[in-house]
Amino acid sequence: xxxxKGFVVRTQTTEKKEKIKMSLRKATGVILIxxxxxxxxxxxxxxxxxxxxxxxxxxxxNGSPEPTGDHPLYPPVGQKSGSTTFRCKECHGWDYKxxxxxxxxxxxxxxxxxxxxxxxxxxGEIFDLLxxxxxxxVNGHDFGNIGLADFDINDLVDFVQIELIDTDLFISxxxxxxxxxxxxxxxxxxxxxxxxCHGVDGTNINFGSPGxxxxxxxxxxxxxxxxxxxxxxxxxxxxxxxWVSRGGSDQEAANVGRHSQMNLAGGxxxxxxxxxxxxxxxxxxxxx
Length: 288
Description:
The protein is mainly α. The protein contains twelve helices and no strands. Helix 5 packs across helix 7 and helix 11 crosses helix 12.
């Protein structure tokens, strides 16, 4: 039997298919609405690696104006001033242990403020602590009014909850990387591709001056905690990528550090007289 063009015989199977399609459309619509709501609230897109960059120097990451004055919570015992006091690392340290770590009493970065490694605070509590002023949350950092959007703060929360490491597992008390220099050399010149920017001998980028050069080997030797943080997370506002984002392990980052200390220009395991382990001694690719 010939049927008119466009005529459809509606069978039970056809109706089931259409019901399934309609259910899928509704489900997709609900998912999209929820996604938009979460994105608007700053959730579901938190990036812990970006959080690691924000921890380093947040205004170099999110484009906010560099803060002026001293942070309201920066203590009188601290020796720093200006925008440096707004950096998370300045009080909590590159090893995330604050006054109990490399930024202890003998260090020029000492503030007496505890670290964040091993915190038992929930994500919501960390968020409130970072966003709110002290008048709302005890010890509130007030970053919500200083230059961090909610999604920035969520990235920092994820960094604290996911990416903090116990640096004592990778750096000895004498500031020597615990790792394999041979494997580190392979990664430096291979998968990590560090040599492309820093050079095979580590002298392509000078973080100091022509008369007083500072190479990546200097950083590895004089502040290994900063070195491993930047290898793992990357360098704010620069092409330097995160080793973790490329699938690299924390131990591999330590191996690169060991190679840098022992084989690259500026690398040395014999510190100069008067050098305080963990102190950047007036130089650094990131201002200490």
